[in-house]
Design a protein that fits this description.
This protein is mainly beta and 179 residues long. It has one helix and twelve strands; from the N terminus they run ββββββαββββββ. β10 and β11 form a beta hairpin. The longest helix is centred in the middle third of the chain and has 7 residues. The radius of gyration is 18 Å and the shape is globular.
Length: 179
């Protein structure tokens, strides 16, 4: 096993446990676009809690930290009607808003991706929303495969990259496939 990497953010120290990636794809998942979002599964050494961070390089480095996991029970439309997976494409087409626990999130983007974890690949379609002040995000992930779709819904907050301090970048695990 390699040595883990550590970083500090807002007074807490995190150990990176796993790194996975989303690579943007065409809607039919046949063509990869070479644009990546990376997911870090971390252990907060101060609290013992598991926390996920995501980072991507767009025009600038963008980092977010997952806050809470939700379900469709937490989501409604503007009229207060519950929404479910059957409503997602229409919400994206109309660029509509979703209300999660009484907070409004406006449609931002939707995209297909290939998710890579531990040598496996899975197809996922992401619907992204943000609140009015762009201080919280709502993501609905639609995972395909194994005969049925699975949905993961969560909120996250932006992280100022200048507030992250690398403590130790660790060492990767040795490649035991050679010689």
């Amino acid at each position: 096993a390699g040595e883990p990497a550590f970083f500090e953010y807002l007074g807490d120290t995190y150990m990176i446990r796993e790194i996975h990636s989303y690579e943007e794809a065409s809607d039919d998942f046949k063509n990869l676009k070479g644009y990546f979002t990376h997911e870090l599964t971390c252990l907060n050494l101060n609290t013992g809690g598991k926390v996920s961070f995501e980072w991507e390089e767009d025009d600038a480095l963008e980092i977010s930290m997952t806050q809470e996991r939700l379900s469709f029970r937490n989501l409604t439309d503007e009229a207060g009607e519950n929404i479910d997976e059957d409503d997602l494409d229409q919400i994206a087409d109309d660029r509509d808003l979703v209300i999660a626990n009484q907070e409004k999130f406006w449609y931002e983007d939707d995209w297909a991706a290939v998710y890579r974890k531990n040598g496996r690949q899975e197809q996922v379609y992401l619907y992204e929303f943000e609140n009015e002040n762009q201080t919280r995000f709502l993501t609905i992930e639609e995972w395909s495969g194994s005969g049925r779709d699975e949905y993961r819904i969560y909120t996250s907050v932006p992280v100022d990259p200048a507030a992250v301090t690398l403590v130790s970048k660790g060492m990767p695990a040795p490649d035991r496939s050679e010689g």
